[in-house]
Design brief:
Mean pLDDT: 82
Strand content: 25-35%
Order of helices and strands: EEEHEEEEHHEHEEEHHHHEH
Structural class: alpha+beta
Largest sheet: 6 strands, mixed
Helix content: 25-40%
Distance between the termini: 15 Å
Radius of gyration: 24 Å
Number of helices: 9
Oligomer: single chain
Number of strands: 12
Length: about 325
């Protein structure tokens, strides 16, 4: 989540990211001789900021953190030490229309989309840069890749808030000696996959929403309420008719077992996909359609200028993906 007030004046790495990771393929026979690899990062900055400023600002402030393995107890990835990045090149990136044929045919290009600027997604940031960054690859990580075939990394932007970058950032006492880390989770993938034979899992229309985790509690709390009771009877009648027509016989289950929570479906899906990934049975997942219901949570409508991720169902989706 981007805190624009806190990061005023700071250029931001926006891609690759959780939604569009960068895959870097390595031939298995070459793995032993490769000691480093390069990535391309897309940065959004201010109009008056130039290439040299980008180099100085991001120097020593870009890191990767490998996800070494899945912790079977907590079902989360265990991460290794930071790997510092060395900037090779900084270039300005022209705006490209999201309908541009070249962009559509070359989706791997880390190119800026003009609609992000026109819709003021990043507030006053309206200029894009591409950073080429080199990272080292040690023997421990190469061994992991040879075993797992894939290795994921979080991309980390270190921001020192006590630095007055381009005179935009306040030097108040609250900001002194503060360092924060902006993390683009699961953004870089080193893989032995040659993409001649691969497996995709496609999930669509997840309909994630805050209320999905709350509805059952409300129903059970008011289970004896006459209106709720009549509604449940009606639902049971409809279910029984459908079962009769389909010649299915099944005892009525408690409502908590019959209630379908799309959020829990995603949680179960993630668990299953992690197991497949750990066994090298899938290469990547595509999520499409209505990933969430309404953008704003129904109990937290705010003005557009107060829009923050935590006020929305995107925040619920984000937290489920990462937890």
């Amino acid at each position: 989540m981007i805190n624009f007030k806190e990061l005023n004046g700071i250029p931001l790495i926006i891609s690759p990211n959780l939604g569009k990771p960068q895959f870097i393929s390595i031939a298995k026979e070459n793995l032993g001789s490769i000691n480093n690899f390069e990535v391309e990062l897309l940065v959004i900055a201010y109009i008056e900021q130039d290439n040299n400023q980008m180099f100085e600002f991001f120097k020593n402030n870009i890191k990767l953190q490998p996800i070494l393995k899945m912790n079977s107890t907590i079902k989360k990835g265990e991460r290794g030490d930071f790997i510092d990045g060395n900037i090779i090149e900084v270039t300005a990136a022209p705006l490209i229309s999201m309908f541009d044929e070249n962009l559509i045919l070359n989706y791997d290009i880390e190119s800026p989309r003009e609609n992000l600027v026109y819709e003021n997604i990043f507030q006053d940031r309206r200029k894009f840069f591409i950073l080429k960054v080199k990272f080292s690859l040690n023997n421990e990580l190469k061994k992991l890749i040879s075993i797992k075939r894939n290795l994921l990394f979080d991309l980390i932007q270190q921001v020192k808030l006590n630095e007055d970058f381009d005179n935009k950032l306040s030097n108040s006492k609250d900001n002194k000696k503060r360092t924060i880390y902006r993390i683009n989770y699961h953004s870089i993938v080193l893989t032995l996959q040659n993409w001649e034979d691969f497996t995709i899992v496609h999930a669509t229309d997840l309909h994630i929403a805050k209320r999905n985790d709350e509805i059952l509690g409300v129903i059970l709390k008011n289970y004896n309420n006459k209106l709720i009771t009549n509604l449940i009877r009606l639902i049971r009648t409809i279910i029984n008719i459908k079962r009769h027509l389909s010649k299915r016989s099944k005892k009525n289950e408690p409502i908590e077992k019959r209630f379908i929570n799309p959020n829990n479906n995603l949680r179960l899906f993630i668990k299953q996909m992690n197991e497949l990934y750990e066994n090298n049975l899938i290469d990547f997942i595509i999520l499409t359609g209505d990933l969430i219901d309404f953008c704003y949570c129904s109990d937290n409508i705010v003005e557009s200028d107060e829009f923050e991720l935590h006020n929305t169902n995107w925040g619920i989706f984000y937290n489920i993906i990462l937890n």
